[in-house]
Amino acid sequence: MSPIRTSRLHARAARLGSRARRLVLGCGAALALAWPTLTLGQAPSAGGSAGQAAVEGSGITLELNKLEGSGSVCRSYFVVANRGPETLKDLRLEMYLFDRQGIAMRRVALPFTDVRAGRTKVVIFDLADLACSDLDKLIVNEVLSCTGETGQPIKGCPDLLTTRSRATAAFVY
Asked: H-type helices in 58-156, by residue range?
């Protein structure tokens, strides 16, 4: 991407809010990475790991990786990637669990603690008295706590979060 296009992109992003700014800059970065391929008439690869890494280059990504039933417990596996410059001492999220009919079943507060900067961590939660097959969607309703290594709140933390799911249930923010 030419320097002129890049400067226009940054100028436009500066006029937007932080969430929209990340979207504009992230799309611009993905386009810049894909530009040589697109100009040669080739489709970008399905894996897209280089472009995906550019878009996810900063922030906190929470992935619902797997749901596993065990008796009356639904074990949930979350993968937390902290691409920010600061260790997450405590990230506590209020989530609502919805059934297949779209009815809220339960409210939970899940803690994700001690995720070092630049690292990825797997965190497991057991959701008691819940069949995984009944779970259709998890919604992050609110960030209850987001503190850094010193115990001070991380500025703009809710805007740093992104979610995705590899499990049978959706995971949205």
From this structure: none
- Give pLDDT tens digits for 148-164: 999 999 999 999 999 99
Q: Which own/partner contact pairs does 35-38 have at CB distance under 8 Å and 24+ positions apart? A: 35/1
Residues 164 and 140 grouped into a single domain: yes
Query: Do 47 and 85 lie in a common domain?
Result: no
Do 65 and 44 lie in a common domain? no
> Domain limits at 16?
3-55
Q: How many domains does the chain have?
A: 2
Residue 139 is encoded by which pair of tokens? 């919604």
Burial 141-162 (b: 16+ CB within 10 A, else e): eebebbbbeeeeebeebeebbb
| Residues 32 and 94 both lie in one domain | no
Strands of the chain, DSSP E: 60-70, 73-82, 88-99, 104-115, 119-128, 135-148, 161-165, 170-172
pTM for the model: 0.67
Q: What is the CA radius of gyration of the chain?
A: 19
pLDDT digits (tens, 9 = 90+) for 32-91: 333 333 333 333 333 333 333 333 458 999 999 999 998 899 999 999 999 999 999 999
